[in-house]
């Protein structure tokens, strides 16, 4: 419930909800889980900081929040929506965390994506009586988050919910809108998230994984939930999740631009330029999987028959995000100005599409800045997949520069 303002009310005058603050949120056993990382002094962390780190410099105003990695961005989900993750277990004791700054940091992260469809995943395990936010903080959060944060959130997934949080939501049911209530989903086991997002891209805290294993072990064999499906071996004609060098070798013409890029760019150039919010909207996950299967089976895909511009846009973003190495390469993650390692043929093709879309921004509302926010995380990410607010800004700024200067970069 920390994640959504629509779940929060002014709790200060309600004695029933005031009593909830006294409820024990976790057992003693849960509270004794080891920390994910050893505690470091400010000097230790500042010495280890580098440009590619998800942490901010120690003298940055939000350094003391970012270093805990409570809030992360984890690419797109299976529907093509940005994924924002909140890790309750990484919240330090109340007296060690400035909760007002945490709220501002959360707003700053969401501000990057609230104009697009997005998903929130809240890992509840690890929220204890020692680190839970105060009721006054929840009240402040309710006042801070206005409609723009609620409009495009498509789902809130509460992972490993406890009786406490379920009771809290029941008590708040009268003031939760029916529309938003349908967006709330309880997730009992990590494997259930696979229908929404690839768990490997979430960088799930170790203690959350251990807790999930503990829950599974406590069940009788007949009641065991399904494990996350193993990664399927690549199909002979597979194109998603395959290195660009291999795709080029397979192409008899030696065309450096993969067929997925050619098809989506061609279709979007013809029919997507005047669609407002193009690249910001999600698509039907069943259709996305069907199109991926067609490509991976070597079958032809005709987006004109489907007449779904947003589907083509999601397929393009999904292809880029599922590359084994980002289009702008891991090498550039720490030195983003070194552009020589980019797969130039594909970069040029994708960039031209963005420029054409941006040229019609009066109609589709997708300026270079907006396109950079949507596509930056699909062009470059760290080896651990997750991305904090401190990494988003430079990547988006670099992507916008590529678009602004494409006539110089790709000539």
UniProtKB/TrEMBL annotation:
Lineage: Eukaryota, Metazoa, Chordata, Craniata, Vertebrata
Keywords: Membrane, Transmembrane, Transmembrane helix
Keyword Transmembrane helix: yes
GO annotation, cellular component aspect: cytoplasm
CDD domains per record: SEC14
A single MF term (Gene Ontology): GTPase activator activity
Protein name according to UniProt: Rho GTPase activating protein 1
Span of domain CRAL-TRIO: 61-216
Pfam families assigned to the protein according to its UniProt record, in alphabetical order: CRAL_TRIO_2 (PF13716), RhoGAP (PF00620)
A biological-process GO annotation: negative regulation of endocytic recycling
């Amino acid at each position: 419930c920390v994640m959504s303002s629509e779940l929060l009310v002014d709790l200060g005058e309600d004695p029933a909800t005031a009593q909830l603050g006294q409820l024990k949120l976790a057992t003693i056993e849960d509270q004794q889980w080891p920390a994910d990382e050893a505690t470091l002094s400010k000097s230790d962390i500042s010495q280890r900081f580098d440009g590619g780190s998800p942490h901010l410099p120690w003298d940055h105003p939000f350094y003391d929040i970012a270093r805990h990695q409570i809030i992360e961005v984890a690419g797109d989900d299976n529907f093509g929506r940005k994924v924002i993750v909140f890790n309750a277990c990484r919240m330090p004791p109340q007296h060690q965390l400035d909760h007002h700054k945490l709220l501002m940091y959360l707003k700053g992260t969401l501000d990057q994506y609230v104009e697009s469809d997005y998903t929130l995943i809240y890992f509840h395990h690890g929220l204890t009586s020692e680190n839970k936010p105060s009721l006054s903080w929840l009240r402040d959060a309710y006042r801070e988050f206005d409609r723009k944060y609620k409009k495009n959130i498509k789902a809130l997934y509460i992972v490993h919910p406890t009786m406490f949080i379920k009771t809290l939501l029941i008590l708040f049911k009268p003031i939760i809108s029916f529309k938003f209530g349908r967006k709330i989903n309880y997730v009992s086991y990590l494997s259930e998230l696979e229908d929404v997002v690839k768990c490997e891209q979430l960088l799930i805290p170790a203690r959350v994984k251990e807790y999930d294993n503990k829950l599974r072990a406590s069940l009788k064999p007949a009641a065991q939930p399904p494990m996350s499906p193993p990664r399927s071996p690549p199909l002979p004609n597979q194109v998603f999740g395959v290195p660009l060098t291999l795709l080029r070798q397979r192409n008899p013409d030696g065309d450096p631009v993969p067929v997925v890029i050619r098809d989506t760019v061609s279709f979007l150039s013809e029919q997507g330029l005047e669609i407002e919010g193009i690249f910001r909207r999600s698509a039907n996950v069943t259709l996305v999987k069907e199109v991926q299967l067609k490509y991976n089976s070597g079958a032809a895909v005709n987006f004109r028959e489907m007449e779904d511009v947003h589907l083509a846009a999601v397929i393009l973003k999904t292809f880029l995000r599922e590359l084994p190495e980002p289009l702008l390469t891991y090498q550039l993650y720490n030195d983003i100005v070194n552009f020589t390692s980019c797969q130039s043929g594909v970069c040029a093709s994708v960039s031209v599409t963005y420029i054409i879309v941006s040229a019609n921004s009066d109609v589709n509302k997708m300026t270079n800045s907006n396109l950079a926010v949507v596509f930056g995380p699909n062009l470059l990410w760290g080896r651990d997949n997750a991305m904090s607010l401190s990494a988003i800004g430079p990547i988006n700024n670099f992507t916008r520069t590529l678009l602004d200067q494409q006539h110089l970069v790709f000539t």
